[in-house]
Design goal:
Elements (H helix, E strand, L loop, with lengths): L28 E6 L4 E3 L3 E9 L5 E6 L2 E2 L8 E7 L3 E11 L4 E12 L6 E7 L4 E6 L4 E6 L5 E5 L12 E6 L5 E6 L4 E6 L4 E6 L1 E2 L6 E6 L6 E5 L2 E5 L5 E7 L14 E4 L6 E4 L4 E4 L6 E5 L13 E6 L6 E5 L4 E5 L6 E6 L6 E7 L4 E6 L4 E6 L6 E5 L11 E7 L2 E6 L4 E5 L6 E5 L12 E7 L4 E6 L4 E6 L5 E6 L9 E6 L5 E5 L3 E6 L4 E7 L11 E8 L4 E7 L3 E8 L5 E8 L9 E5 L4 E6 L4 E6 L5 E6 L15 E3 L4 E6 L4 E6 L5 E5 L1
Parallel strand pairs: 2-8, 17-21
Antiparallel strand pairs: 1-3, 3-6, 4-5, 4-7, 7-8, 9-10, 10-11, 11-12, 13-14, 14-15, 15-16, 18-19, 19-20, 20-21, 22-23, 23-24, 24-25, 26-27, 27-28, 28-29, 30-31, 31-32, 32-33, 34-35, 35-36, 36-37, 38-39, 39-40, 40-41, 42-43, 43-44, 44-45, 46-47, 47-48, 48-49, 50-51, 51-52, 52-53, 54-55, 55-56, ...
Length: about 675
């Protein structure tokens, strides 16, 4: 079944109270808190939770798409585990009161269930079927997509199709007009024949000439059916039945033509059968029978126009014979005349594009580019139009974020530190929309460098950011994005490398030095003093590294993630005394822990502790001690928990927020079920 690609975002629908006919009593209303409308997931079910307000009569039941919700407070709040169909799911909220009256469609949330890809490392196209094929080299899965509207379907993966699992699939070749796609696997030294109707995988061991240690490109001659494979050892022909490989253009060869150095891609003219090979700096044509080569476009000797700097991909227009390349250092697409070798820049790539591969779409006169940055497939018109997102997991609008390292809530606003963009972002968790509040292009002052920690002073319209590489604390004006340095490291009795920070009610900052301890900072004067460091103060010393911290003002203390290579846990540090007390220790001898996340629920006396390398989240009772597993790394709960560099509580909507490096997305983790969904990407 073809699965619709996510195209638009719908805000969560909250109905205003209606007045019942013949009276002044409002009808019952419902509001969905989690998930946000427009959420994308690959799970078979999702937990929907929200709130209701009664009408003239008390509420007897809430149903979500026919599933009875559970409640502990007479449906003031409620939740339901709802199964999802593939594609678009419109989940309606229905309320029944104690008199048996049913109120339909009191609220609605839209959720899309479809395959989620990570990085499209290689593309191919079957123009006869108007289908594209995309290899997810990270998740070891093969997808198809409609080249017109971008509809996506999962073809084969570790849980779809029979046959041996992929080891390290790197490149693909589709057989035009058939149901067969070949997948070259670098780790296993095989070429898989994939039956796309079933997802079944049949390995073809590659024998004959040694193919080397990496498979860069795979193409098929549409006339002869012979496979052409580019590896670290050269360009090979491979019999698709026997798997016998013959090296027709060895890497480093200068005897059969110009020096062939580091071949990376191959293209075959379906009309003439000509075989073209691209290296980073030139394009050559090779005779498969004799191995003789000639220069097609080789700056400065052959062809005029812009010289190549680093070709990463090559394809051919079957209608005109024109060669197209993407040059990664030029950030450009070029057209190459195969007769003259002349090179023409047809367009520059947009800033922030990280192309992995491209393929010509002759039917739509476009180039389809897989972009590692946005994890999308973009369509560029040969007439200069576009790009448009043909296939994407994106949720929300605005500048794409990079890696989110720290999150903070203030006045119902979610702020994030983006270490890749070196920016302070605001993310609307209701619809995934993003805005850059301060960064290279927004606000004045010194630009960020290695931003790490974040503290909010919403009342005064400020945020504070810690920067580890230059050891400074920066104040950010939330209205203008302007940046002002308020403190520098390296002072006597001060921090060296500020990582996490937290704002006290009196306006001072608690600053965590990741290898030394905690300090107090007055941002108005820049004065620093020791709060608690190893060798100074009472209690159990810190271990090797400190991760994240949270203020527990109810108990006049700071909670600190304290971890080493074999043990991780949480220490409580008195704000008045600096005394260090172990609160919880997690023995992870078989799973070394790195940069745990920490979130605090002061109202309920709970802390949430994320263990990155075990990919688990625990809840800690701050009064009684002890920890309970909330969410673990498994497919049953949806998206993988792979980073846990940041963790923030969204108590109003009953979820934890964390960043997934694997999916490049902000995830919501249900406190009730542990289910994960993409909130912003």
């Amino acid at each position: 079944m073809m699965i619709p690609t996510y195209r638009s975002l719908l805000s969560a629908l909250v109905l205003t109270p209606l007045v019942a006919c013949g009276g002044g009593n409002p009808l019952p209303t419902a509001q969905v808190g989690v998930p946000a409308s427009g959420t994308v997931t690959d799970a078979s079910s999702i937990t929907v939770s929200g709130k209701t307000a009664p009408g003239p009569a008390a509420i007897a039941m809430v149903r979500v798409e026919g599933v009875d919700a559970t409640t502990t407070d007479d449906y003031t709040t409620w939740s339901a585990e709802v199964p999802l169909n593939e594609g678009r799911n419109s989940l309606d909220i229905e309320i029944e009161d104690v008199n048996g009256e049913v109120f339909d469609d009191t609220a609605e949330v839209v959720v899309r269930r479809r395959p989620l890809f990570i990085i499209m490392s290689d593309l191919d196209i079957d123009a006869t079927m108007k289908l594209g094929w995309a290899l997810d080299g990270y998740d070891y899965a093969l997808y198809s997509f409609d080249v017109t509207d971008g509809e996506v379907d999962l073809i084969t993966s570790d849980d779809r199709g029979t046959g041996p699992l992929f080891g390290q699939p790197t490149t693909i070749a589709a057989v035009a007009g058939s149901a067969t796609v070949y997948v070259a696997d670098t780790q296993l030294d095989v070429i898989f024949e994939v039956e796309t109707l079933t997802g079944d995988r049949t390995p073809i061991p590659v024998t004959g000439d040694p193919i080397g240690n990496f498979m860069f490109d795979l193409e098929i001659d549409p006339v002869s059916g012979v496979l052409y494979l580019v590896t670290g050892n050269g360009v090979f022909t491979v019999d698709p039945v026997s798997g016998v490989a013959k090296n027709i253009a060895p890497d480093g060869d200068a005897t059969n033509g110009p020096l062939l150095e580091n071949p990376r891609d191959v293209a075959i003219d379906p009309t003439t059968g000509a075989v073209y090979v691209a290296t980073p700096l030139d394009i050559q044509q090779v005779d498969p029978s004799s191995g003789k080569r000639k220069a097609v476009s080789m700056p400065p000797a052959v062809g005029k126009g812009q010289a190549f700097l680093q070709i990463i991909s090559l394809d051919i227009d079957p209608n005109t014979g024109t060669l197209y390349v993407i040059d990664n250092l030029l950030d450009a697409m070029l057209a190459v005349d195969p007769d003259s070798g002349d090179r023409t820049v047809i367009r520059l790539l947009e800033q922030g594009i990280e192309p992995a591969d491209f393929v010509l779409d002759p039917a739509n006169e476009a180039l389809l580019v897989s972009d590692n940055e946005s994890r999308s497939i973009l369509s560029y018109g040969l007439d200069g139009s576009g790009p448009r997102m043909l296939v994407t997991n994106n949720v929300g609008r605005g500048p794409a974020h990079g890696e989110l390292r720290e999150l903070a809530f203030g006045a119902s606003r979610c702020f994030a530190i983006d270490t890749r963009r070196s920016a302070l972002m605001e993310i609307d968790t209701r619809n995934g929309n993003r805005a850059e509040l301060s960064g290279d292009l927004v606000g004045g002052g010194d630009i960020f460098s290695s931003v790490e920690g974040l503290a909010l002073d919403i009342e005064n319209g400020r945020a504070y950011v810690s920067e580890t590489s230059n050891g400074v604390i920066t104040a950010v004006d939330l209205a203008t994005g302007d940046r002002t340095t308020v403190a520098e490291g390296g002072q006597v009795d001060g921090f060296e490398d500020p990582e996490d920070i937290a704002l006290l009610p009196d306006g001072r900052l608690v600053v965590m030095d990741g290898t030394r301890g905690l300090y107090l900072l007055d941002p108005s004067t820049g004065v620093q003093r020791v709060l608690s460091i190893t060798g100074d103060g009472q209690g159990v010393d810190f271990r090797e590294n400190l991760g994240r911290m949270r203020l527990d003002l109810e108990n006049d203390r700071v909670l600190v993630c304290d971890y080493s290579s074999t043990l991780s846990g949480v220490k409580a540090v008195g704000l008045s005394s600096g005394t260090r007390t172990p609160l919880f220790a997690f023995a992870g001898e078989n799973y070394p822990v790195d940069a745990p996340g920490l979130a605090l629920d002061e109202a309920r006396g709970l802390a949430y502790f994320g263990v990155r390398q075990m990919r688990q989240i625990y809840v800690i009772d701050l009064e009684q001690g002890g920890a309970t597993l909330v969410a673990a790394h498994n497919r049953e709960q949806g998206l993988e928990l792979d980073s846990l560099l940041c963790l923030e509580l969204d108590a109003e909507n009953g979820q934890l927020l964390t960043y997934s490096r694997r999916h490049g997305a902000l995830l919501g983790v249900s406190l009730e079920s542990g289910d994960r969904v993409i909130l912003s990407k």
